Amino acid sequence: MLKNYQPNFKFIINKPVFYSSIFLIVFSLVLCLLFQESLDAWFNSTKLLITANLGWFLILTVNFILGFCLYLAFGKFGRIRLGGEDATPEFSNISWFAMLFSAGMGIGIMFFSIAEPVSHFAQPPRPAGSAPELAIQAMEFTALHWGLHAWAIYAVVGLALAFFSFNKKLPLSFRSLFYPFLGERIHGWWGHSIDILSVIATLFGLSTSLGLGVQQMNAGLNFLFGWGMSTTLQSFIIVIVTSIATISVVSGLDKGVKLLSQGNMIMAFALMLLVFAFGPSIYLLKSFIQNTGSYLADFIEISTWNDSYRQSGWQNSWTVFYWAWWIAWSPFVGSFIAKISKGRTVKEFILGVLIAPAIITLLWMTVFGGTALHFILEGDHTLIDAVNTDISTALFVFLQKIPFTPILSGLAVLLVAFFFITSSDSGSLVIDNITSGNASYTPPLQRVFWAFTQAIVAIVLLWGGGLEALQTAVIIAGLPFAVIILLMCYSLKKGLQEELNKHKKKLRSKQEKSYRDTISDLMSEQK
Amino acid sequence: MASTPNIKVLAGLDLSEMDQPLIKYLKLLSELLPLNKVTFFHNIKQSELPESFKSPEQLNTIANTIKKKLEATIPALLGDQLPYDIEVSFEDYTELSFSKMAKKKQINLAVLGNKQNLEGNGGLAHKLIRMLPFETLLVPETYNPAPKKIIEAIDFSKYTPTVMQWGKLIKNHHQQADLTFEPINISKLSWKFFPGLSNAEIRKNTQEDIKMKSEKWAKLYPNANPLKVVPAEDKNIASALIQYVKKEKADLLIMGVQGVTSVTTLFMGSVANEVLYLESNACLLFVKHKIES
Q1: Is A197 part of a structural domain of the chain?
Q2: Predicted complex ipTM exceeds 0.95
């Protein structure tokens, strides 16, 4: 069965990037283990320190990125084609949209689709008058966190990777993005440092997702079989699921994993359709239209809201965390969407990546979050209690209110597990690519190594302080990467400008006389 | 096929420099296919004429003048072996005039120019391929007058038997020395929904796909030439197909008008649609129906 297994233990690595990344990861894990007693307090105070002092920077950065994306799409660069003038898109639009969505969706939408709107309703970001107003505000902020800003981050990273790789023929790597102003130095320590930051951001971003996923799986198993909620069980689940994911890498069962990934999409849509059908369907259709409208109407106001006058601290746990999380995920999602977008124009790319997946994500959030709020507005407050007690249980408490609870809960646990496997497998591929210096072949064991490194980081973070630790880790990793993305925007603009300057219109066709002239000449000949 | 079908051709002329090579090609085509008769057809584009030319009398005069001009040009280019007639109409919509003429003349193959270096956007050809209920052959002005290779594009869809049948028809009828036929399939790995496939995995899956398709082909068409499966790699199917046609210097590509993914590409454009936008010196035969004897 182990037909793909090759007893090749020699890793193919870019030494400075590989060893520095390992050193930083081990160093942070050792610190966590040494100061285990005080970790909880440390994570809390660090998170507060960063978010309170630098939260504004992340908010400004993501707004800038969205504005930059729109500038690229509708400005003079919009017609530049990724892969050159003659490149053609590799996939049809429908396939491309499906792939974009599958890249960006994952454990997060399972974890937060119920918990987030309910939490925003119970602990509102800003005081609101009546319960319906609170509900509208809750959905608006959920849309803010999962909507255009998130996809703008992926779009700009994906576009930069695609442009420098397809048009400038540089390796599909983060260091390539800085070629316009670092020049050949991208092959030295400057380049290594950028790649190291990408590795750290991806690793902590993924480990956070894995941590959230395993907490939710544990909650699901608790609801289904009464298994207790414990970090030990969660660590055990991480090891088991990571092992399943890595079997695919070494055993040639990649067809199985491919099936899992396609299964993910089918199961996710089935779950959404079932909740829609068994839930308040008409209310959901109405609220989707209204939520989209409210989100767009208040877009600028909520995007730039900084809680400057109240300083309630709400934003630090939500908006700032999300922006850091999306930034940390961007190397992972960006490299995937770059790979599938050759032949698209800059305009097509940005509008495709911004709009289509954002609409589907918001639809998902409306179906799950909107239904949860519907129950609350009808007077059922059990979901608020569940979110206050343990946020990871929210989905399963919610499913108890929908017919066929055991089937839907089982489907949800399975879906989280599938997301876990595919995220782990794909994430380890991305990290492996960066740390191997974009080698065309690396031994399967090397990818297994990264899959387990992610698992270990997730376990240590769970022991260190659960959700708080996961959020802090992602914020610490995301913040420096935000600076990288800003520099990358500058570099991308410079690169696109060069491309535009080089672009000379070639007139391929030979000028022929017009139809009108042909007929006129013919008639004159007759005369 | 119990007996050889006789093919009635409708050749669209647009009074441009494309007409001459197109008429010449029909002579060559009669050596490849059993042609029964050719109707050369031009529809006067009224919208592009000066106002003074738009009266019914003027239009009739223009039509007669065009007819006379074509009558004088065609015999020298076509020779005297192939029966033909000339029709000129002045409808508002050229595609509708084609449709009506095809019905009137019971046409089963439309032959149109596919301008490569000459000016023209090919918009009419796009429309006609979709709407005409029979086969369409697009001829570039850069075609090879001594064809050597014909490629049959195989996608295992409902059009595959038709592609094979047209190939067989040419095989049985052609008088060209050294004309070879090659069935090919483009292998495009569907890695949608799966971000994490490495290049090595993509290569491996492609190899498996090639093996599987070759076996399927051998089972379906044991007497046909072996199927060549070409990996599309990072190209779309249409680009990979045309690239192969160029590489092999093929002279004719026979393909189904819609492939296996016709449902999803109904709105987005099928492989056939994309092929139309690509540069190629090969003639393109888009097939829809099995030929009736």
Answers
A1: yes
A2: no
Q: What is the pLDDT of residues A171-220, one digit of tens each?
A: 778 888 888 777 777 888 888 998 898 898 888 888 888 888 888 888 88
Provide Rg for chain B, Cα atoms.
21
Do residues B184 and B228 touch, judged by C-beta distance below 8 A? yes
Query: How many residues belong to chain B?
Result: 293
- The DSSP line for A205-254 is HHHHHHHHHHHHHHHHHHHHH-----HHHHHHHHHHHHHHHHHHHHHT-H
Please answer yes or no on whether A512 and B16 come within 8 Å at the CB atom.
Answer: yes
A252 contact residues in B (CB cutoff 8 A): 204
Could you write out the DSSP letters of every residue in B24-81?
A: HHHHHHHHHS-EEEEEEEEE--GGGS-GGG-SHHHHHHHHHHHHHHHHHHHHHHH-SS
- The residue to which tokens 């005297």 are assigned: B80
Q: Angle at CA A263, nearest 5°, toward A257 and A265?
A: 120
Number of domains observed in the structure of chain A:
1
Spell out which residues of chain B touch residue A103, defining contact as CB-CB under 8 Å.
195
Q: Which two tokens stand for residue A447?
A: 């990818």
CB-CB neighbours of B199 under 10 Å: 13
Element (H, E) at A274: helix A254-278
Q: Residue A68 belongs to what domain range?
A: 15-500
CATH classification code of B144-293: 3.40.50.620
CB contact A93 to B (< 8 Å): yes
Q: Which residues contact B14 (CB under 8 A, 6 or more apart)?
A: A515, B42, B113, B120
**CATH superfamily placement of domain B1-141:** HUPs (3.40.50.620)
Residue at A177: amino acid letter: L
In a domain, A514, yes or no: no
Q: How far, in Å, CA of A511 to CA of B120, rounded?
A: 10
The pLDDT of residue B269 is 41
Give the residue among A452, A62, A32, A447 at the shortest CA–CA distance from A242. Answer: A452
Looking at the DSSP bridge assignments, the partners of residue B112 are B138
Please report the residues numbered 27 through 86 in chain B whose beta carbons come closer than 8 angstroms to any beta carbon of chain A.
44-45, 48-50, 53, 61-62, 65-66, 69
Would you state the pLDDT for residue B25?
A: 95
- CA nearest to B242, candidates B180, B164, B151, B167: B151
Cα–Cα distance, A174 to A164 (Å, whole number): 10
List all residues 6 or more positions away from A56 whose beta carbon is below 8 Å from its beta carbon: A306
